[in-house]
Design brief:
This protein has 291 residues and is of the alpha/beta class. Helix content is 42%, strand content 18%. Helix 2 links the parallel strand 2 and strand 3.
Length: 291
């Protein structure tokens, strides 16, 4: 029997994850008291021999008993059981925003501010996060992207490295993305904005792509950028980083940055050891302002 412990920060998407795992054929039990976990395993083996995959939701509501989870997991593995711990995380800012939007109470909030409750929860769950087999940061994941990550881990049996890379184009005149880990300035390249027939188009159009990539400096930049990313990512993975945002900026975020972000994304897409997505933050802002 394969047993998956689903845990993590409240508000990071545990309930959604449990529903997705159920759709993938897991027998799911949420908020199970930790001391009952061995009983659930024994019960499943004795009365439900056809159950091959079980997912159990465990979170901070278990109180002090959550400290007993690792000894229980160790005992299960020593008996030959296939057990994995999936930890769902998100940034403090995102968690606060989600609680304010849903108007739900954090399980540790009591009369404290939600920020204080999140800090206390992180402290209580630190051990589980360190021992987790998989960590998914849902701060910037769409529901379908979370589903894809879960399928990669639990259905496709792909080698998952706990890192999700976002390639993000932006315009400097709208501000540098606050969640950037790396920021690259491509304003040194010729600007299609000053070519009248190219100005209305974007970096997703062939004309802009040909114009930008026709510059020798653009090709050199892409080669050096690819080498840098290939060097950094294995080191980020070994250090336990689970989110990497690479921001590519030009003046307005419509032409050069979009083109180069697309090219970097294309070059990295062949690597299957980490999740990858692309976003163009400011691509339509000039059009919106023109209305």
């Amino acid at each position: 029997m394969r047993l998956v412990i689903v845990t993590g920060m409240s508000g990071a998407g545990k309930s959604t994850t449990m529903k997705m795992l159920e759709d993938m054929g897991f027998f799911c039990v949420d908020n199970l008291p930790v001391p009952l976990l061995p009983n659930l395993v024994d019960f499943s083996n004795e009365f439900y021999q056809n159950v091959e995959k079980v997912a159990v939701g465990v979170d901070v509501r278990s109180g002090k008993a959550i400290a007993d989870l690792m000894p229980v997991a160790k005992a299960f593995r020593e008996q030959g059981g296939d057990l994995s711990i999936l930890f769902l995380d998100a940034s403090d800012e995102v968690l606060v925003k989600r609680y304010k939007e849903t108007r739900r109470n954090h399980p540790l909030a009591m009369n404290e501010r939600v920020e204080m409750a999140i800090a206390e929860e992180r402290s209580q769950l630190r051990m589980l996060r360190e021992q987790a087999d998989y960590i998914i940061d849902t701060s910037h994941l769409l529901t379908r992207e979370l589903k894809t990550e879960l399928q990669n881990i639990f259905m496709n049996q792909e080698d998952y490295k706990n890192l999700y890379v976002t390639i993000l184009s932006f315009g400097f005149k709208y501000g540098i993305p606050s969640d950037s880990d790396m920021v690259m300035d491509v304003r040194f390249l010729p600007n299609p904005y000053y070519v009248e027939e190219l100005r209305p188009k974007t970096g997703n159009d062939k004309e802009i792509r040909d114009y930008v990539l026709g510059c020798e400096e653009a090709q050199v930049f892409l080669d050096k950028m690819e080498d840098l990313i290939d060097f950094l990512i294995p080191n980020y993975i070994s250090e336990g980083k689970n989110q990497l945002v690479i921001s590519i900026g030009c003046t307005g975020g419509k032409h050069r940055s979009v083109t180069l972000a697309n090219e970097i994304y294309k070059r990295l897409s062949e690597n299957k050891t980490y999740g990858l997505k692309i976003e163009h933050r400011d691509i339509a802002k000039d059009a919106i302002r023109g209305k």
